[in-house]
Structure prediction request, 463 residues.
Amino acid sequence: MKFKGHHIISMTSFSRDMIDSILETAERMEPIALGKQRSDLLTGKILAVLFFEPSTRTRMSFETAMYRLGGNVLNLGSVDASSIAKGETLADTIRVVDGYADAIVLRHPKEGAAQLAAEFSTIPILNAGDGAGHHPTQTLLDLYTIKRESHLEGLKIALAGDLKYGRTVHSLCYALSLYGAEITLISPMELRMPEEIISDLEKRGAKVTESDTIEDAINEVDVIYMTRIQKERFPDPAEYEKVANRLKITPELLTDARPELRIMHPLPRVNEIDNGVDETAHACYFKQAFYGVPVRMALLALVLGAIEI
Amino acid sequence: MNEEQELRVKRIENGTVIDHINAGQALNVLKILGIPDSSQGVVSVLLNSPGKFGIKDVVKIENRELNVREVDKIALIAPNATINIIRNFNVSQKKKVHIPTFVEGVVRCVNPNCISNSNEPVTSKFDVSVEGNLILRCTYCGRSISEDIAKNLL
Prediction:
């Protein structure tokens, strides 16, 4: 399987074999990600980090991944202080940075930005989120978390929260359909997953059911994947409060949960997971944030040709 | 066309006749072909003409033979159209339009936040599929258009 020089734009271009290879490579990277082993796999390589939108976890974990493998990072810094503020197109920015680095990680507010960047770049583009479009490295780290903390084969998973607009859940569901997962969707009426996505998932082999409450799912699933509900989606603040309180995980709710149950969240959370849950064995959202490092290390090593599988 | 219709729109000596255009789409066909800017010859348009399979539109373009790329673009809004190349008053070639698998620079993406709708130096690109309806899928943002293709012509 050849990854060298490939762009990472969206999950739709990944087969199950490709995903499995990336996750296996990530597992080998874990001791390095934890700082227990040193690596010079990417010594002499430069990663350009172009973030046109704010980010904490994605940007920092990409930078950490590069440093842990002995590489260097070139950060665009603030958009306001760059040529973009003077009206430079993304295409020109990419053509310039192409000459400064060995790979580019890009976050941009417009859908399709990473695809456009790939057309103007001779070095690999890694999409770190393009508007409401794709965020493939988030999906890969979610899959990795499920693999490490639960299991991908025969998985029963509930996804709760904003399933209408949440790009992470759409992308994750498509990837899970490759593994034949049983998926329960829990959301308020206003934020239900679009029908065409559900129908696509079923065509691809996933079993999908819908539910209103988390309580019903807790004893049925291996993983609950929570997402943030954004207040601005609701014209009436009282309606938001009602919905937000109904889709909340508390330690009380987990009293009778099976020990194997895992709770994930792409973060940042607002109040959909009570702080009291953090100390339970079910919580794995902070580990999930850490797993972004080995997964991104694996991707960087693969697209830069430092590892072949 | 029968004799009565020919009285309305005369035969052409050389050029292209696009027949069996879905009724109401003739002006969009002209738009796709860039007419009048791209043609010097006379262009005749027949709207709501009765045909074997109901009403249709017909476009006759004098002194211009359409190329394959132009014909394929027409297929997006007139999938049943036939193209007749006329030489010396005779039909020298007759073919049905072929729905392309990919089109570039013909239709605008309906997603206002798509990068193809910004000031970037790219043209819109769509993968074309037929699932009952014709579906165009933007290669940048993935948004699909199935209805309103004519409304979003560039």
